[in-house]
Amino acid sequence: MTEQYDMVVVGAGTSGCYAAATVAREGYDVVVVERKTEKEAGHIACGDALKGADAFPEAIPKEKIQPAFTNTDVDHGRFEIPKEDTVLEIPVPGELAVIDRWEYGRRIISGAKDAGATFHYDTVVQDVTQDDDGHVTGVRAIHEGDVVEYESELLIDAAGALSLLQDKTDFSDATFDTNVTYSQFCSAYREVLHVEEPVEWDDALVFKPTDRAAGYLWYFPRTSTEINAGLGFQMNEEPMKLVEDLKRDLRNRPEFKGATVEDKLGAALPTRRPYDSAVAPGFIAVGDAAGHVNPTTGGGIAGAAYAGKYAGEQAIEAFESGDVSEQNLWRYNQRVMDHFGARYAGLDIYNIFTTAVEVDDLMGMLGALPTEKLSEALYSGSANIGWKLKLQTAIDARDHWRLIYDLYKTKKLADDIIDHYDHYPTDPRGLPSWQEVRDDLMDDVYEATDAAPKY
Q: H or E element: which one contains 96?
């Protein structure tokens, strides 16, 4: 069986639904191919914290998804450092919501359907089709035992972390970023718990370090009695026993005594810089499939929504001009880098820094730093620190001066990376020279942090 569409989207997550809705609203024929059943679609492992809830793309109206926002009173993070007997209260800038991710997933699917997109559930993609020139022409999938060929002018890869589509596509004549390995990703597991008594910290996101610096536990309150509890670790570290480690911590927290588990799920997610290029002839990758996740927090919903919007708008422009070449899709890369890509690339430098530091040293240093500047760095990729604050920090962190100095060098390098991303090329022909300069900066990062190369 062969089906033809203007655009095929693989994956019914945030980026896929927003891309589909953006294009379908303009009257184009769009299908979203989803491997899960209609009942399970939208059920995705997530921390449920949505940063930037006040500014979402308009393709799916905010009022459509707002009922999934179960807690909009969170305004800060609580960073627990048990070995320092310290709890850092870190302000969170902008609007933050904790959501019911499955309900949110159902609502964005409904929003994309309202915009005119078609959904094919229980359909598993097996291969990507390309013509002799390397132009992507669609996918081959299995539905209820039958082979279905989907032909399209443009394929949107919204298939998530370590996407199968990228394994099946020949990018040898494209700029598409193939410098991708499992060690640039995080493995995570979460449970949704119900407790009888309201927790005291229902206005905060709670973070706690794991035994290794490259991981953390989280407790995010959907409501005062429904908590998303989870943990994750960088895949360049020795594997953690995620379920056992989470259970151990839960048993030591009195607020979870007698808690019942309502849902459990695990996943992988990128904790790396955005792909240098996420386009190829007839192909755009979005969301987790393109590294569109804050590499320090793992937050990716808002970035995925905007990546879907930008991909959809670039698709419309390509359809109108009859040209879905890499050159004509390039503007999508530019918009991603301009909006959040540069910031995420800067945050990735701090992520690299933490992999080379002992967890006890790192926690001791964090406990001595000004929390408002931690918040600024955590979300913007950098922070401005005046000389008075530098002096006070030096006094408070006198036991960690060497590490503070290493962090200061890392901050300067992160700023250099962000500045370089501000000069992202306007044309695919400029990418190699841009990458060469960026890679030289990354060599400086590895030398300063003594971290193993990540890319």
A: strand 96-99
